[in-house]
Design brief:
- The chain is α/β, with parallel strands linked by helices and about 450 residues long.
- It has 2 domains: about 35-220 and about 390-440, Rossmann fold (3-Layer(aba) Sandwich); about 225-385, Glycogen Phosphorylase B (Rossmann fold).
- Helix content is about 40%, strand content about 10%.
- It is built from 16 helices and 12 strands.
- The protein has helices at about 1-35, 60-75, 85-90, 100-115, 140-150, 170-180, 185-190, 200-210, 255-260, 295-300, 310-315, 320-325, 340-345, 355-365, 370-385, 390-400; strands at about 45-50, 75-80, 125, 150-155, 195-200, 215, 240, 270-275, 285-290, 305, 330-335, 350.
- The strands form 2 sheets. It has a 6-stranded parallel sheet with strand order 2-1-3-4-5-6, with helices on both faces. A 6-stranded parallel sheet has the order 9-8-7-10-11-12, with helices on both faces.
- It starts with a helix and ends in a 39-residue tail after the last helix.
- About 45% of the residues are buried.
Amino acid sequence: MALARVLHRVCFLWFAAASLAAFGAMKVLTRLARVGRRPVRVPPRRILLLPHDPPAQSGTRYRFLAWAERLGKRGVRVDVGFPLTDGEMRRLYGPSAPRMEWLAALTFARRFRQVIAAARYDAVIVGRNAFPRYPYGGPVMDRLLAAVNPRTFLDLDDAIWAYPAPPRGRGPAAALLRRLTDTRRPLRAMALVHGVLAGNAFLLARARRTNPNARLLPTCVDPDRVPVRRHAPSARPVVGWIGTPGNLRHLDLAAPALARLAGRRRFVLRVVSSRAWTRPGVPVENAAWSAEREAREVAAFDVGIMPLIPGPAAEGKCGLKLLQYAAAGVPAVASPVGVNREIVRPGETGFLAAGDAEWEEALDRLLGDHRLRARLGAAARDDARRRWSYDAWEPALLDALGLRSGRSPWRGERGAGEGRASRSGGGGTRAPRGAADPRG
């Protein structure tokens, strides 16, 4: 055991030194890239997408792969570079998770190759930051990407700068890494890129403090591609929640109301996640999440919930759970935090609940009346199609990329050309007609 600790500390020191050397080399490459980059071509013929997560993850599917399919149908060649595979992601959060430094080294090598290849594209959209899940050092990779390709856009769907810093260890190696930690790196990255595509009004306002070329592009859904809940009387209706293990803590907010309600009404809370959740007095069924079963799981809910602990991190959420519920015709009860206030129309598509009593009352009303669930669910589905669908927001993305007018709407940029390609595996915040405008 003592030898293992010594080896681990040596690896820590080696990794820190290698990181410093790599960052220094990238600063030199950044200067060279600015000299050799090619001129801007608008509208773009080839676009590179660099999501923050592997293919199966929700953020990648909803904010990158769905748009890649749509852009491909318009004759634009779209390539996608992932930082990790789905298998590596499972190992990252599994019981035998690898050391963070080894995973970061793998991600670094893969993303570095993708950044260098970005010079061949007319535009790049990168998710959150160019070097995901690595809190050390400044935004050097983002700076290199912006130098390699001047039409780099940052897709921002979460206030990741508001999350806690990594655990702090002991010893000289941990102390060195703490000095290298920069939790505000995503904020600094926003100032480097040409434009920002923000997922909600809170993120948009924050992005515009450092980058005037920020536009609104919310997370979208396609109601026509998911099964629809058919509401009927049920002896044991299902209250549902779906999400990542890191967000399970928000369920604790609704636990007291769920426990009290279970004392006088029969129901089950179905939690669809990669980790189980249980609390005393709450009847829970845990279901393992998978991308293939996700839509069917949501369509089996009678009521969907999205409790959120108030704070900057919650304000940065883009409300995907609520949009999934709505697309499936499932009414929702949610905390009145952030974009939840825009997605849920109280009494029309669901309810907003600020405290235990409100949570209990809203859930009690919905669980006891299948006709109310059907009416609110139908209205929520209609809302999803009109205000939060890809059809509603596609014009906004096309405008941002200069694909509608042939001219770039972003400040300080000009170009022209005809788009041609095959798919491979600004301005203001004005919302498209019929879509939600976060400014109210």
